[in-house]
Design a protein that fits this description.
Helix content: 40-55%
Shape: elongated
Structural class: alpha/beta
Largest sheet: 8 strands, mixed, barrel
Distance between the termini: 144 Å
Number of helices: 28
Strand order of the largest sheet: 15-16-18-19-20-21-22-23
Number of strands: 23
Radius of gyration: 53 Å
Strand content: 15-25%
């Protein structure tokens, strides 16, 4: 009796400690565990009073509490089991089917003092002289026992089903609780069937509660963790080796066995083969490290990422190390490939522009005292080659050029593909040989059947004198040299000189000072009169002069080509359009609204501004008649993107603007355009008459052109008229309007106004 009581006290105290610790747990199931443990105290405490008390009344109350507590505990045990085993307990029907029998049984227990149907008490004398009231089971108590057995069977069924459906890794957390419950139930059954005076199974109750607490809230699945880690390490794709503190291999996984061709548990052989990859000292007692090592086996290259890491116990005493070997062959090859293509052109295999410029810059920095030549080359009219023969042929040509460069230059120079058909090279001056380059660039042809098409390679050379300028500028100068021979069929190599340098500096100066020149109104409109056959001035063409602060009054030929080339001509054109509108507004106020002005529209205007919007806004701003501002274009304006430009021209003509076509007859497509181009005035240039040795034939052509234009109901202006003889001839062939030095040079506004008075 004493031993039982002491055991019950010890396990009871542990039970209470579990209850207290359960309050600190944040697990979702903690509340149900805590509730189950609290209810479990009732039968435990009741049994203590039954053992210690000799009072019949106290024992009767304790047995009542014991039976009620057992009922409630069984209910919470079922709900805990369902939650612990991940079964749904939320359905209302399930809850009520479990609660109703419990409630009815509790009511039956509480009515026992009145009806004496549940249990009775029998006084028993124990061997040590103590008196003990034992429970005598009556019919309704047997119903209680049957119901308890059914609830326990339900709990057993839940755990057994879980055990057969869960992974073996998780088996222990369910199996231990099930076995404890079974043991407690059998112990309790033995007590009931054997008529033992004292219910020793209470110790089982306490142990069961303690184990439920431990496995629900405290248990760390060490075996599970070890098994899972072993499974993961065994099947991981990296080769894993574990080395003990004496340098012996004690484990390797499947990947390691495959990598080093090891038999199962061949640890000694694993150590030997591992040491061929890594010296012994690199993985024993050393700091962790990671490196990529490359090996060549049967002429094939393999790359491995090898990681070494020391292992220590919780006292930081060296316990061994592990070696991880990861096959990085594919990744390293891909990395090399990406690095290669980040530096090389994908088509030709030469350096790409960015890396080529970097190499040139690096070479010049490393060797500043050596003289170098900067070479640029491209294919004459390569776009046409692509258009006619196809991109595949063009690409093959670029590859052939790259091969020629490598074949003839080799290690004497740094070279690369800059873009499209442009190649660049930096070569020491002492190795530069013009004949070598001419020979290397000759002999390129494309063959279509029996027809052979020669391909011209142009070469530009810049002797590097300023090594502090950007590399892009160096090669820009080499390609600038090519521009000078682009249309020369005889020359294939050209040299950048100071004249080109001066031209570049002038271009930079013009471009940089344009905005300020417009703001300061340095651009001055000059007007060249357009006079009819009766000598009356009808209007004028607006031409521009630049009143430069240092260069003086500059003719258009000095700055217009620069602005055309850079696209800045658009700004100047818009400035001149507004200047013309301002003059027309002035004339309108002065009563000169019978005069018109003709302004030029550059081809680039159609691309870099909204011509329709700009011009119509100016007309509205200055309140002038659109027919007074004539718009002059050349056939080059509509050589490309014809439909879009014709749409803009037609919209402007619909607003009342008159279009003039300048330089008619100077190109090859004038007659072809004339049938489609919506213009109102044709301008013929008398330079056509002067630049020929057969004046008679030229006059016949002019006579034909004037007659044709008149029959098309268009007006004709002949410009470049310089002599009375030309005037008489032109009047004779039907021309009625003239422009040229014979009548007036381009003059200032004031001079023109005095001329037209």
């Amino acid at each position: 009796m004493t031993a039982f009581f002491l055991s019950l006290c010890v396990f009871g105290l542990l039970y209470i400690v579990c209850i207290m610790r359960s309050h600190k747990s944040r697990k979702a199931i903690a509340e149900q565990v805590r509730r189950l443990l609290y209810i479990g105290l009732l039968p435990l405490l009741a049994n203590v009073f039954i053992v210690l008390s000799g009072s019949r009344m106290v024992c009767e109350i304790a047995y009542t509490i014991y039976c009620v507590g057992t009922d409630v505990m069984l209910y919470f045990l079922v709900t805990f089991s369902m939650t612990y085993c991940s079964y749904d307990f939320s359905h209302r029907a399930v809850k009520y089917s479990l609660r109703i029998p419990i409630v009815l049984d509790i009511v039956s227990i509480l009515l026992n003092p009145f009806f004496g149907h549940f249990f009775d008490l029998q006084l028993i004398g124990l061997e040590n002289g103590l008196l003990y009231y034992s429970l005598v089971s009556l019919p309704f108590h047997k119903v209680h026992l049957l119901m308890s057995a059914l609830y326990l069977a339900l709990v057993f069924g839940i755990f057994i089903h879980k055990i057969f459906t869960v992974s073996q890794f998780h088996l222990e957390r369910y199996l231990v609780i099930l076995l404890t419950l079974i043991a407690t139930a059998l112990w309790e059954g033995f007590y009931i069937l054997s008529n033992t005076p004292i219910d020793l199974s209470m110790i089982g109750y306490a142990v069961c509660g303690i184990l439920i607490y431990y496995f629900s809230l405290e248990y760390l699945p060490i075996i599970l963790t070890e098994r899972m880690l072993a499974s993961v390490v065994s099947n991981i794709s990296d080769a894993i080796f574990f080395i003990d503190d004496h340098g012996e291999c004690i484990y390797f996984n499947k990947s390691a066995a495959s990598l080093l061709h090891l038999a199962d548990r061949a640890f000694d052989e694993a150590k030997k083969r591992l040491e061929r990859l890594l010296p012994k000292e690199t993985f024993i007692g050393t700091e962790g490290a990671t490196e990529i090592k490359t090996f060549v086996v049967d002429k094939a290259e393999y790359s491995y990422k090898i990681e070494r890491q020391q292992l220590f116990d919780k006292h930081h005493i060296y316990a061994g190390s592990f070696v991880s070997i990861q096959d990085r062959t594919v990744e390293e090859l891909q990395k090399k490939k990406e690095l290669y293509f980040s530096h090389h052109d994908s088509l030709t295999g030469l350096y790409n522009k960015e890396y080529f410029f970097h190499r040139v810059e690096q070479q010049l920095a490393d060797d500043p005292d050596t003289d170098y030549m900067v070479i640029g080359s491209n294919v004459k009219e390569f776009k046409i080659v692509n258009d006619i023969f196809g991109r595949k042929t063009g690409n093959q040509m670029l590859i052939d050029i790259a091969e020629k460069i490598e074949q003839h230059v080799g290690d004497f120079a740094i070279y690369g593909r800059i873009e499209s058909d442009k190649y660049g090279m930096l070569i020491r001056k002492k190795y530069f040989d013009e004949k070598l380059f001419l020979n290397a660039s000759s002999g390129f042809v494309h063959k279509e059947g029996d027809v052979i098409y020669p391909i011209t390679i142009h070469i530009g050379v810049y002797e590097l004198r300023e090594k502090d300028i950007p590399v892009s500028v160096m090669f820009g100068r080499a390609f600038m040299a090519i521009e000078g021979i682009r249309n020369d069929m005889q020359k294939r190599i050209a040299y950048y000189d100071e004249q080109m340098r001066a031209a570049i500096l002038w271009e930079q100066q013009v471009s940089a000072s344009l905005d300020e020149a417009i703001i300061m109104r340095q651009f001055v409109p000059y007007l060249q009169a357009q006079v009819n056959a009766d000598g009356v001035v009808e209007g004028a063409e607006v031409l521009v002069r630049w009143q430069h602060p240092t260069e003086g009054l500059m003719a258009p030929s000095r700055f217009i080509p620069v602005l055309e080339k850079t696209g800045l001509i658009v700004k100047l054109d818009q400035y001149m359009w507004e200047a013309a509108c301002s003059i027309l507004q002035k004339w309108k106020v002065e009563g000169r609204d019978n005069l018109y002005l003709s302004v030029n529209i550059s081809p680039k205007d159609f691309y870099f501004c909204d011509v329709y919007d700009v011009i119509t806004r100016l007309i509205k701003k200055y309140d002038i008649d659109p027919s007074r501002l004539r718009l002059e274009i050349t056939e080059s304006v509509i050589m490309n993107d014809l439909d879009r430009k014709l749409s803009i021209i037609n919209r402007l003509r619909a607003r009342g603007f008159i279009f003039e076509m300048d330089d008619f007859g100077s190109g090859y497509s004038s007659l072809n355009l004339l049938k489609d181009l919506p213009v109102d005035v044709i301008k013929l240039d008398m330079v056509f008459l002067r630049q020929t040795n057969n004046a008679s034939r030229a006059r016949t052509i002019i006579q034909f052109l004037v007659s044709m234009v008149n029959q098309l109901k268009l007006s004709v202006i002949t410009e470049g008229v310089e002599t009375l003889e030309q005037v008489d001839f032109l009047i004779g062939v039907g021309c009625r309007l003239f422009q040229g030095y014979y009548f007036s040079k381009p003059v200032t506004l004031a001079s023109f106004e005095s001329l037209s008075t």
